[in-house]
Structures are given as C-alpha cells and as structure tokens.
Design a protein that fits this description.
Number of helices: 0
Strand content: 25-35%
Shape: globular
Largest sheet: 4 strands, antiparallel
Strand order of the largest sheet: 4-5-6-7
Number of strands: 29
Oligomer: single chain
Structural class: mainly beta
Length: 484
Amino acid sequence: MRARRTVLAAAVALAAAATPPLLMAPTAAAAPAELADDFNGDGYRDFVMLGGSHGKDGRVTVVYGTSAGPGTRVQTIHQDSPGIPGAVEQHDGWGTAATTADLDRDGYADLVVSSPGEDAGSVVDRGGLMVVWGSAKGLGSGTVLNSPIPQEYPGQGDSFGEEVVTGDFDGDGDADLAVTSRSRAGVVLLKGPFTRAGKHGGSQSLGDSYGYLAAFNLVAGKVTPDRATDLYILGSDLQGGDDDLDLRAYFHRGGSTFTKRAAELRVPDDGGHQGGDILTVGDFDKDGYGDLAIGRGYEEPDAWKGYVTVHYGGSSGPNSARKPVKFTQNSAGVPGSSEKEDYFGSAVAAGDVNGDGYADLAIGARGEGLGTKRMAGTVTVLYGRAGGLSGTGAKSFSQDTSGVAGTSENNDQFGAYLKLTDYTRDGRADLMIDTNEQLGHEDRWGQVHLLKGSKSGITTAGSKTFTVTSLKLKYPSMGGPFTR
C-alpha cells in the first residue's frame, strides 16, 4: 500500500513561481492514441501494475492487451532497464504512482511513472517523473521530467510525484499532467504537448488560491460537460486557519481558469490520512455530470468499519444543493454488515460494467473477515441508475465466490486495489482486483483477478487470474496499485 505522509512543516512565505511556457515545435502525429493505455497501438488496452521490488527499489509490470483482455506478453520496467535514465537506488520510490496518456500525440500511449524519493545531487527527495514512450513495439525509452518548484528548505526537495494524474485540464486538446508537490504549490500542472527531449508547454501552480495546499490524493475526470478534464484534490489548506486544516475535496474546473479552485467539499477526517486509490469519478445517475465517490475505509472513530460518500455533480461542479449519500455495509441492499476493521471503502473504482450508460461503483473492503479467516477481503459492486447509486441489486465477491480462483485465507486482502476498465472492448468495464495471495511454498505472492462485465453486471464467468508464475516473472511479487 502506498503511504501518504502528512505535510507538517509550517507554511513559508516563498510562493512557487510558474515556469514560463517553452517554445514547442509542432509534432508530426496525425492524431493522438484512441486509448490512453494502448502502448503499442494495436487497439487493445494494456494493463499496468506498480510495486514489488527490484534490488533496492520498485518496478512496473506491463501486461499487453488482446481481444480477450490482458494476455501473455509481459514487460517489466525499472531504472536499470535499457533506455531508462538513472539507476535503481534505495528509497527512490520508483513506481509510487503512475498514469497513462499519449503525451506527444504520436498515436501511441505513454506511461508516466513517479519517483518522489529521488535525490538530485545534495537535495534529498527532490522527486520526479519518468515518461516511458510508446511505439509500435510497445514501451521503450524514457525521459525524465523534473520538478519545476523552487526549493523551500535547504537540501530538502518537494517529493514531486507522490500522486500524478493526466487529462486535458486546460481544454486545448493536449494531454497535461497534474502532479503533487510538498510545497506551497501543492499540485503542479505540467502542460502538454510533451517531447522526447523533455520539453513541454510550461507549468503552473494550483496552490496560488490556497494558503499552503497539502495534497494527498488526486482524481481526474469529466464532471462538467465541457471538453476540458476536471480535477478533485483531497487535502488540506495548512495556512487557512484551524478550520481549514480539516480534510477537503477541492474542485478545480477544467478550462482557462483551471488553476483556481472552483469549489470545495468537507470530508470527515480521522486526524490522519491513509493512502490508496480512494477517489473516483463517474456519472452514476447519467445526468451528464460526473459524481465523486470517496472511500473512507480508515476512519478511526468508526473503528475502521468504513464507508463511502458520493457527492453528485452539477453544471458547474459539485452540486451543493444535493445532499451527499453515504454507503456502509449496513445500508439497505448492501451485502454483509459493518464490522470493526473491515476497511469498507479502502479502494473504490467507477465504470459502466453492464453497458446501460450508468457508471457503477466497486468498493474494496480489504479487512473483511470471512468465517475464521482474518482480513480475507471482499469487493462490493453498487449499480448506477436514475437517481444515482443505491444498494438495490448490489453484489459482493470474494475468493469464496464460485468462479473466483483460490480460497479466502488470512491476510489475502482481496480488493486491496481496484480498477474498472473495458479491457475486452465489448462496451462494458471489467473489474481488476488485487490480492495479497501467498503462492505455494515459495516466497512468492500477489494475484490479480479479472472479473468481466456483462449485461447483468460483473460476472465470474470467464474470469482470469494473473500471478508471478502465470506471467513467468522472475521476481517474487506483483500486484497493485494500478495506474489511474
């Protein structure tokens, strides 16, 4: 699991200056890639897993897509891989976060990998991003994108890249990157297009409308109906007074005013913050506006039973006139019951699993006990409909569900990370589920399940699993988190 470190330093007076735009030569691409995660341009989505260990630090595992979903072609990338700048070093955090987009508009998706612990000379934790470029053969060489933020403390960097997401945030047709920074900037916009020489359209701070923005989680998506991508930031304003130290979901509307926050939502906070993919955007009521789901699986006053809140969207962002909806395992129709340390909401993902035009919501409860098995884990799917999500027709899955490989065991944490994406290109999102599975008597662990979407919703028919053994990896572990 990715840990999020709370920014404790007091705010300083130094403001993060915006980097002026660079002069860009036009690219030769006729059109960007149709799919943001198709690295070799064959028309099928490729699947990316983060984490694991290679020597002293992390790696990324790519499973290339086929008409039946992720197949058998596998590529492992780390900082000792050919064409990747730098070297594997302890505590770099390479692969802490990642995202995908066609950054240079050449028709092939590219992979962006963060390393927030990367040192730069004598500067500790300067951080940075690595763009691994797509091609007809798949992912190849890499280019480093450094932090544009001035140092605020001598010798201490801004851990650039603890979170990174992509979208066309300014609405100009080019893919941009939104990246966290432990500085007054909080989140930095890197504007596209990007070149393989490391040039891009400049950078801007999103923190100018805050006192001191501490950003923990990001999610990009279509909330308003215009062409630009919108952004939610889960975080706090450390210089806005005691009240503003509480957790917020800050909304930035895509377009020419993207760098200014447009709205904010109060979020219950346990006094700390646990990482994970706990934000997702989907149009659950099909009204044309994206809705925000926030997983709160780690609320200490709640004894870590967990819950999810859904904030519905409107024409200009979050709909303040519509009361947020809260789901627990005690909500009507939701399978199971709320119990201590279930961590219901420790992961969330949105996607249309039955092709009816309504986004659906997958919720991980990595701590769910099943019988005598502790932290076996479950995943619950809530279905969208007119009026929004409800528990009606909700389904729950575990490794005890018929058609799901394996059996529930202690500490499997089935549902630790989730992703809903149409890997089979049938118009319905498929569900990827990460499991902390111990494999045989060897020191090998990690298993990813693919449960397909269907007219009736997520089904175990035709399910697949991916392990170190099945993918013929030489490393002992694999699994989530997954790319956004």
